[in-house]
Amino acid sequence: MENPTKNWTRRSFLWRLLTIPPVFILAACSGRTLEEILSGMRPGSAVTQSLPPTPACDDGDNVTIAQTEGPYYTPDTPERTSFIEPDMNGTKLVVSGYVLSTDCTPIPRALLDFWHCDDAGVYDNVGYRLRGHQFTDENGRYALETILPAVYSGRTRHIHVKAQAPNQPVLTSQLYFPGEPANLTDNIYRPELEMAVQDSEDGKLATFNFVLNVT
Questions:
Q1: d(CA 67, CA 12)
Q2: Predicted confidence band of residue 191 (pLDDT cuts 50, 70, 90)
Q3: Measured on CA atoms in the order 7, 8, 10, 11, is the torsion positive or negative?
Q4: Nearest to residue 202, comparing CAs of 117, 52, 94, 99?
Q5: Domains plus CATH for the chain?
Q6: The pTM is what?
Q7: What are phi and psi of 22, to 5 degrees?
Q8: What one-character-per-residue DSSP string does 60-117 give?
């Protein structure tokens, strides 16, 4: 049977996203909807904040560029959509978006493995603090609840990620924050990998769409 989303244009793709009932967009494993994560609300509460705008998808989008893994990657992370722990300091950050193919088709069950330093610039290289993986939902959407990573010597503020469509190669990359002074001196930083970031009532909301070359 032909995939009905195969020939989506940018306009039809965005229109279909707007028609998806929010109650059906769930965050894997956390037991919370993406809307609850994005608004910082407890499960079952009424959603009072609107979702941040999703970056536009253009037909023929360029594949998300690959970057170095760095020295602090740890395999076999737990599956979870929230890195927040009771004793954790730092500004709350929610990163969300879609995993798409180059023709704007959402990719369900795509793997996303995130890791980053804490608010003091330290990576947990013993356990899995601020590390974890998740899978996109049936609409290709993901959301990660975490804290704002610190800037540390030699690097600007960033988040590491591995993205993989089912049965496809792994893309390793990094995500960056706009307006960071250290962006100008970081030799690894790429503006194409900047997230769209805005303030929320209790932290920051960031959006980024991954585009993968799926064969």
A1: 31
A2: very high
A3: positive
A4: 94
A5: 10-212 (2.60.130.10)
A6: 0.78
A7: -55, -30
A8: TPPPPPP----TT--SSPPB-SB---TT--S-EEEEEEEEEETTS-B-TT-EEEEE--
